[in-house]
Design brief:
- The two termini are 33 Å apart.
- The longest helix has 32 residues, at 90-121.
- By secondary structure, the chain is an all-alpha fold.
- The radius of gyration is 18 Å and the shape is flat.
- The protein is 72% helix and 0% strand.
Length: 191
């Protein structure tokens, strides 16, 4: 139920809110298209002040099938409060695949927080923590735009959760897990 709420809030009126295309989103779209066209793998981009490329790599998957998620929205526009004129616009085919990565990462972050809080504090606290993140204006905004910053909370939560588990267990595989999460987090958004 919590994840459905998080998903719905991130999709509701996605055709109008946020309005327009942010300049960082445009650069991310250009980088993603260059990678999809076959540019060799690199950990940083060449344009846009050397951005980390994890978000772009994830967005390539979304750009390869742009109509997949959009067709869900187009099939039931009233459910998500969408305007048919906006959702059928050609520009939406270019913007939405990038934003869908942020939507998916935002929902995964709510799940990660819930799981970590449940492990530490029990179900009631986990539900409240997940609910607060699901409706957080800051997190909602960054879950609705195609920016790399949405990756930071996900990797921070996963890293801390795995680190605490490793401290308790002392097992090398748990230490390896938080180390991998930390390393991937540094590749996601380091500002």
């Amino acid at each position: 139920l919590l994840l459905l709420l998080a998903f719905y809030l991130r999709l509701y009126r996605i055709d109008l809110i946020p309005w327009g295309l942010n300049n960082d989103e445009a650069i991310n779209a250009l980088e993603t298209q260059a990678i999809a066209a076959g540019r060799p793998f690199a950990t940083l981009t060449e344009r846009g002040l050397n951005r980390e490329t994890m978000f772009h790599m994830l967005a390539v998957l979304s750009f390869r099938t742009p109509g997949l998620a959009l067709n869900l929205l187009r099939s039931v526009p009233a459910l998500f409060g969408l305007q048919p004129v906006q959702i059928d616009d050609e520009l939406m085919n270019l913007i939405f695949p990038l934003r869908f990565v942020s939507i998916a990462v935002g929902v995964l972050t709510v799940l990660a927080l819930y799981l970590m809080a449940r492990d530490r504090f029990g179900r009631p606290v986990a539900f409240l923590a997940g609910l607060f993140l699901a409706v957080s204006p800051w997190h909602l905004l960054y879950s609705r735009v195609g920016l790399r910053a949405i990756l930071a909370p996900l990797f921070a939560i996963v890293t801390v959760g795995l680190f605490l588990r490793a401290l308790e267990s002392g097992r090398p595989r748990h230490h390896l897990g938080w180390g991998v999460a930390l390393g991937l987090g540094l590749w996601s958004y380091t500002s």
